[in-house]
Amino acid sequence: xxxxxxxxTDKQGLKQFVRFPNELYAGNRYYVPQIESMEIDTLxxxxxRAFEVCEGKYWLAINDEGKVVGRVAGIIxxxxxxxxxxxxxxxxxxxxxxxxxxVSALMDQVEEYARTKCMDVIEGPVGFLEFDIxxxxxxxxxxxxxAYGKYNHPYYEPMILKEGYVKETDFVExxxxxxDNIERYTRFAKAVGERYNLREGNYSSKSELLxxxxxxxxxxxNSCYSKLHGFSELSPAQCEDLKxxxxxxxxxDYVSVIVDKNDKVVGFGITLPSLxxxxxxxxxxxxxxxxxxxxxxxxxxxTIDALLIAILEEYQDKGVNAMIISKIGEGMHKNGIKYxxxxxELEENHNVQNLWGRFEHHLHKRARIYVKTIS
Length: 375
Prior knowledge:
The chain has 375 residues and is of the alpha+beta class. It folds into two domains: 4-172, 3-Layer(aba) Sandwich (Aminopeptidase), CATH 3.40.630.30; 179-337, Gcn5-related N-acetyltransferase (GNAT) (Aminopeptidase, 3-Layer(aba) Sandwich). It has helices spanning 11-24, 36-42, 78-84, 100-116, 156-161, 183-196, 206-224, 236-246, 276-282, 290-299, 320-335, 350-353, and strands at 4-7, 54-62, 68-77, 88-96, 121-124, 136-139, 166-177, 199-200, 255-259, 265-273, 303-311, 339-341, 345-346, 361-373. Strands 1, 2, 3, 4, 5, 6, 7, 8, 9, 10, 11, 12, 13 and 14 form a 14-stranded mixed beta sheet that branches. Helix 6 packs antiparallel against helix 11 (320-335) and helix 9 packs antiparallel against helix 10. The relative contact order is 0.16.
């Protein structure tokens, strides 16, 4: 099979790039399609302010019949490279049919791009920022991913390894059963608040939450996530993008913002009703009916996804996590939530994983990032 690599240079090509996995996984019960318009915005420099610090190119693999059989992005995050003192080219948005020839052609193109940019290392799959979908699924092929994860066929890993890539790190995902009683967390949370003069922030609407505490949330996030793999400090403009992306869909019952006596954010937890099944029904489109499925999932659900949690270092190991769990736990009980999906956590991020230690939980998905040194 003859494979041609074609760079994406126009809107039509970008649509093909975004739609390819939807075609590859058509009819797959575990695949969760992303909303095509949102994916296009993420990949467009004029829409995504990650391009303040990043650059990238996208390619399609075309067979001799003119059919798309693979895709990949090559990305350089200059801010992150400066932070870690390395010359890293990322690959992301990788999907392909079961063909080593296709994988070789795609990865050769990324490596050629990296060399022209004087990079030394290739790693991925990762996106522009920490909040883009990352990793190749290596465990949990019989599970529906969260809206912030990704499904792929089992053949991805062995084919990537054949191209000379090795494991760099893993993301793990847990399914947690909501306990019938969280009274002990409520009592402990009250004691912690009194001891350290902390409390839940005062907000009664999403608008008030946004205006009073969003900036503080991102300050805590930048501080706490600074040492995590792939994370570089979010700029004010990038924070604005994330506000637009996440805040409209929040439900206050599933959010906790812990503040000190000066109303300064010291920790937070943000969860969201699972959108996986709604996105499957939407089939990649908000209209004409996709948004209806999403609205229904936000209002009525038995599962929430734990998106973000962070606590300032000086307040860690002091029980602030119990305050967060107590607040969100009350919302879960109120609305009949039975399960929590942890979303992807770095395997070495034990601080977050310890949150689930006292609950019934099990690890049911694992995704992997790979690395390769090039000459």
